[in-house]
Write a structure and sequence with these properties.
single chain; alpha+beta; NADH Oxidase; 2 domains; 13 helices
Length: 256
């Protein structure tokens, strides 16, 4: 398991081989055994295999081809609707329709997604997380017919790999691990510990000639400039998506 986790690769190209129902069911059962706050299991997953529905998700996920290539798309949702319905049927005092309820479900959903990811890789499947789930939460809610109290938090494309990419670099462990208290890095420590990743990332992005030309036009000469530019994660994007998420959380009854 340690070897599997340390050699994870995101897969974005898949063969046409379908995933057997028995295998998919085993993956989902593995997810069902994941840790969950209070064993409430306030999460749900929508399994999408129909081509028409995948096309709708493809549009929502800014037309990333892997959504269409992968035989299965899994959308993981925070789900307090099911919990509230159980409470209603048993005539108990209602709760969970708030930010804490959403965050509890979001963490449950993320834990289940990671369990399923590892299980999928253990049987030779490849996966890729879809960060664009946040960007298109309002559209995905409509596409999947999610009721109030249900909110998409992440998605996975799953299938048999048609590629074998090299391992992507990761930050040094000392940057994410802190002993007893949080350690604030000095400017020199920041430069030193990020240098290798900066070099690797810049080489990867500039290997794309079209993208490199666009970056030159914009005067972008460093990977950090790229990350906050209009080509990646601009402040404008963050503000727009943040506003949409708050509005959509309110519409879904998950924001006081």
């Amino acid at each position: 398991m340690i070897d599997l986790a340390q050699n994870h690769r995101s897969i974005r190209s898949f063969t046409e081989e379908p995933i057997e129902e028995s295998i998919l069911n085993d993956l989902l059962l593995a997810g069902l055994r994941s840790s969950s706050s209070g064993n409430m299991q306030t999460w749900s997953v929508i399994v999408t295999k129909d081509n028409e529905n995948k096309t709708k998700l493809y549009e929502a996920h800014v037309r990333q081809g892997m959504v269409l290539e992968a035989p299965v798309v899994l959308t993981f949702c925070a789900d307090v609707f099911r919990m509230r319905e159980w409470i209603r049927v048993n005539k108990a005092k209602q709760s969970f329709d708030d930010l804490l309820g959403f965050l509890t479900g979001a963490v449950d959903a993320a834990i289940a997604a990671q369990t399923i990811s590892l299980a999928a890789e253990s049987v030779g499947l490849g996966i890729c997380y879809m960060g664009t789930t946040w960007w298109a939460a309002d559209k995905i809610i409509e596409i999947l017919g999610l009721p109030k109290g249900v909110f998409p938090v992440t998605s996975l494309v799953v299938g048999y790999p048609a590629e074998n990419p090299e391992l992507r670099d990761r930050l040094p462990l000392e940057l994410v691990m802190h002993h007893e208290k949080y350690h604030h890095l000095s400017d020199e420590e920041i430069r030193k510990t990020h240098a290798k990743r900066e070099q690797n990332a810049w080489s990867r992005y500039t290997a794309n000639e079209k993208l490199h030309a666009k970056l030159k036009e914009e005067g972008i000469t460093h990977v950090t400039q790229f990350y906050t530019s209009k080509f990646k994660y601009s402040k404008e994007l963050h503000e727009r998506v943040s506003k949409m998420l708050i509005e959509t959380l309110k519409e879904q009854g998950l924001w006081l």
